[in-house]
Amino acid sequence: MNDLSRRHLVTGALGAATTGTMIAMTSPAYAASPPSAVDLTVRIATFNASLNRNAAGDLVRDLSTSGNAQARVIAEFIQRTDPDIILINEFDYVENGLAATLFRDNYPRVAQNGAPPIDFPYFFTAPSNTGIPSGFDLNNNGVVGGGDDDFGFGLFPGQYGMVTPRQA
């Protein structure tokens, strides 16, 4: 399958990733030859990694080396599942994709417990509404401020974000 066809399948299937743990899709609309000659399977996964921390910057600190036990387990899961694209939830957003880059370079690209390394040269991450003050007493406790009064619950902007790495 050429890269453009694979990219269209991955892009079209991204929304499906939020509904199940593992989904395999095929699309004869992109087949230039008989299905037996071209494998159009795209493996999509979603995983709640709980790679969220209590303070901004803590995730970058934890992913700066290859020794974080939680990140190693998550990387091994990803390696054994071998998805083409994966939505990783509860992954703190860090500007410029720094946390996503550190995770990719120090964990999935390194063999974990005998699982083969996996490369995700591309990823998407974006700011979320978590940890952003609303200016209103949304929880009706008489005080404006804190995670319960933010647009999305969070102790700092970007807590409980997400990242979507994909293979080439």
What is the oligomer described by this structure?
Answer: single chain
Shape: elongated
Q: How much strand?
A: 15-25%
Fraction of helical residues: 10-25%
Largest sheet: 5 strands, mixed
What is the total number of structural domains? 1
In N-to-C order, the SSE pattern is: HEEHHEHEE
Structural class estimated from helices and strands:
alpha+beta
Radius of gyration: 18 Å
Number of strands: 5
Low-confidence stretches: 1-28
- Give the rounded overall mean pLDDT: 85
Number of helices: 4
Strand order of the largest sheet: 1-2-3-5-4
N- and C-termini, Cα separation: 12 Å
Structure description:
By secondary structure, the chain is α+β, with helices and mostly antiparallel strands. It is built from four helices and five strands; from the N terminus they run αββααβαββ. The protein is elongated and about 65 Å long. Helices cover 23% and strands 18% of the residues. The protein has one domain. It has helices at residues 3-13, 58-63, 69-81, 98-106, and strands at 22-25, 42-51, 85-91, 122-125, 162-166. Strands 1-2-3-5-4 form a five-stranded mixed beta sheet.
